[in-house]
Write a structure and sequence with these properties.
Elements (H helix, E strand, L loop, with lengths): L1 E6 L2 E3 L5 E9 L4 E9 L6 E7 L4 E3 L7 E6 L4 E6 L8 E9 L3 E4 L3 E5 L2
Parallel strand pairs: 2-11
Antiparallel strand pairs: 1-3, 3-8, 4-5, 4-9, 5-6, 7-8, 9-10, 9-11
Amino acid sequence: QVHLVESGGGLVQPGGSLRLSCAASGTIFSIIAMRWYRQAPGKERELIAGITNDGTTNYADSAKGRFTISRDNAKNTVYLQMNSLKPEDSANYYCYVYFSVLGDYWGQGTQVTVSS
């Protein structure tokens, strides 16, 4: 059994920063890819950033230049550093991990609210 535990969400003022973390635990063979998605009320879930096992990253246009995805392979953890946050970044953020053998898993979500 694999568990993904997210943390780091909260309330922040426009222009502020947050760092999200997602730690995988359990019987893990290897991690192929790790991603962050977000979903705002009434909107579809969208891919924000992804990172592969060789460190290749990709970002949604809305995240480029402001968000940075990284991973700590020793800790089976993926991070999303979010800077210059805007009210439109408010959403529930989910981590996604694709494991070798096990397939894909989702985190429970962490709420990010950007408001003054």
